[in-house]
UniProtKB/TrEMBL annotation:
Domain of life of the native organism: Bacteria
Organism of derivation: Hymenobacter nitidus
Name by which UniProt lists this protein: Lipoprotein
Keywords, in A-Z order: Signal
Signal peptide as annotated in the record: 1-23
Length: 238
C-alpha cells in the first residue's frame, strides 16, 4: 500500500524535531521569494485552486503567500493569494544542486583478515556535490494579540558524491608485515556517495566510500580501495 505524501512529510518533520537542539534549527522567519514546487496541503480549497499545476513563483506578503504560475501555452500568468491560518498547512519543495565542504569525523572499516573492525578518527575532509531537496512546511500561528503570522519549518535532504583527502595509520598489521616503518600516518585520497540532512545550522550525512593509500605501502595495504562507512559533518556558514 503506497504511503501518502503527507505521511512522508510528517515523518521528515518528526525527524527534524528529534534532531533540533534549539528553537532556531529548521525554522525560518520568512519564506524567501523564488521558484517552488507545490508538494502537499491539508486545505481542500487550496488544493482545488492549485489544480494540476506544480511549478510556481511564490512570495510571502505579511501573513499571505502569493502564487504566480506561468502557463505553458501563450497567455497571461495565473496569480492568486493564500492567507495562512491555524490548522491548515502547505508544503513547498525547492530542488537544486548543492556544493559543500565536509569533515569526516570517523570511518568504520569492516574486518579484513586477522584485523578486526577498525574505527579511523584521523583527519579527513571531503568536497561534496549532489542534488538537494528543501521542504518548506508553512502554517499559521495565532499570537496572544489575536493576529496570525506564518510559521515556517524547513528540512533539507540531499544525495550525491564526494571526494577528498585524509590520513590513516599505517603499520605492519595492515600491510601484511610489509611496511618498513613500525608505524606512520599515511596520506589517502577518498571518494564515495552520501546522503545529507541539512538543519540550516549544521549538515549531517551518512557515507560509504573507499580509500587509495598513496606511497609504496599502498599495494600492500589491506584496505586499499575497500569500502568503509562513515559520517559527514559540516556547518552552514551562509
Amino acid at each position: 500500500m503506497p504511503i501518502p505524501r503527507f505521511c512522508f512529510v510528517a515523518a521528515l518533520f518528526g525527524l527534524q524535531g528529534l534532531l533540533a537542539g534549539c528553537a532556531a534549527v529548521g525554522h525560518l522567519p520568512t519564506l524567501e521569494p523564488g521558484d517552488y514546487q507545490f508538494f502537499d496541503t491539508n486545505d481542500p480549497a487550496l488544493a482545488a485552486t492549485v489544480g494540476s499545476e506544480k511549478a510556481f513563483y511564490v512570495e510571502q506578503v505579511q501573513d499571505s503567500l502569493t502564487f504566480l504560475a506561468q502557463p505553458e501555452a501563450a497567455g497571461l500568468p495565473r496569480r492568486f493569494a493564500y492567507a495562512v491560518q491555524p490548522g491548515k498547512h502547505l508544503v513547498l519543495l525547492d530542488r537544486k544542486f548543492d556544493l559543500d565542504v565536509f569533515t569526516i569525523p570517523f570511518k568504520a572499516r569492516p574486518p579484513r583478515g586477522p584485523v578486526p573492525v577498525q574505527l579511523n578518527t584521523n583527519f579527513n575532509a571531503a568536497l561534496y556535490f549532489g542534488r538537494r531537496l528543501d521542504f518548506y512546511h508553512v502554517n499559521g500561528r495565532k499570537l496572544l494579540n489575536g493576529h496570525q503570522v506564518p510559521q515556517i519549518r524547513t528540512v533539507g535532504l540531499g544525495y550525491g558524491l564526494f571526494t577528498g583527502l585524509g590520513s590513516t595509520i599505517v603499520n605492519p598489521d595492515v600491510t601484511g608485515q610489509q611496511s618498513r616503518v613500525a608505524e606512520y600516518e599515511g596520506f589517502v585520497v577518498h571518494a564515495g556517495a552520501a546522503t545529507i540532512y541539512d538543519a540550516r545550522i549544521f549538515n549531517l550525512g551518512l557515507a560509504v566510500g573507499f580509500d587509495q593509500l598513496l606511497g609504496p605501502d599502498g599495494r600492500h595495504w589491506i584496505y586499499q580501495r575497500k569500502p568503509w562507512f562513515g559520517v559527514l559533518f559540516g556547518l552552514d556558514l551562509n
